[in-house]
Write a structure and sequence with these properties.
globular, mainly alpha, 363 residues
Length: 363
Amino acid sequence: MIRRVHIINFFRKLTLTTVLFLAPLHFLKLGFSGLEIGLIVSGFSLAPIVFSFPTGWMNDRLSMKKVILGALVAQGLLFVLISLIRSAGLMAFAFLLLGIANNALDVSANSLYYKDDTEPNPNRKYGVYNFWLAAGPPIGFVLGGLVTLYSGFRTLLAAFAVLMPLAALALRGFGREKFSVVSLREYRSNVFNKQTLAFSAFLFVLALHWGVEGTVYGPFLRARFGLNDLQGALYMALAYVGLASSSLALSRLPFDPSRNRRLLLLGMALSGAGLILMVQADVRLSFLFRVVHECGDGLMGALVLLVISRLFEKRTIGGSAGLLMTIQTGGQMTGALAFSSIGFRAGLQYPFYIAGALLAANA
């Protein structure tokens, strides 16, 4: 089953992350303003705030496989719909629906993995998981850049729409699911305690910088270095390899809570410093520091999953982790709104400075 989860994660992240990173360039061509782009991305981010807990609750009590199947099909249909839309209002609504589908996939795939106990080493378990989450986007960026350059963004969306039903074929090998009756009181006690609330605040600040990447990252590369769609995609793809590599490196280490805490701090420091220093006039130096940022994100991503897996019991982890995703997504949405407005008004470099400083302060 675990390998099939990795297959689904590979294809869903390949498609969605590529669309999110390249979409702002498409929106600029459609004449959307910086505020409109921020609202569209925030609409995508809004969905998990509302739906993460209900989806996690369904994972604990009803089904994970059916939710994943429905979300994969919905995501494919929404790629087709987005390719046809030209108005900012309709695009925001479509991205809201896309956010709902993606959230269902995120929460349900995570729940499946949290509940599995075949891998005894948590570092290996979540390092490998995060690696497969990160392995798809570099390939997607390159393919997306090529298709967008020669055929257009709409052709890319159509091709990705076909991949979603194919990824759903991996569900056929899943075993039987086990469920428990969990009360709302249990979820409340899981989340509203000192340890989890402190971790929630950490997640919110951590997620702010993802609002930069979904709004001003692509436009920054074009404005700063004059990169076309393919060149920008190659920049993103090669840098993203750093995220996958650091996740895989973590999986090679034996589980050690003290060392993991130090690695989490190191990940935040690298991520923040990389964001700040990638704002260079020389594209080679910028790329080097972007790799540093992605290496930090790889460590943080895997270790955040590991911490969540140890905060909650398996019978309640779907809904409890869903509540944490709500908070995390609130940070991403706040960052998207704030950084898109700052970037398109004051200068595209400033969101990177601010987000990097916030990550350093969080550490």
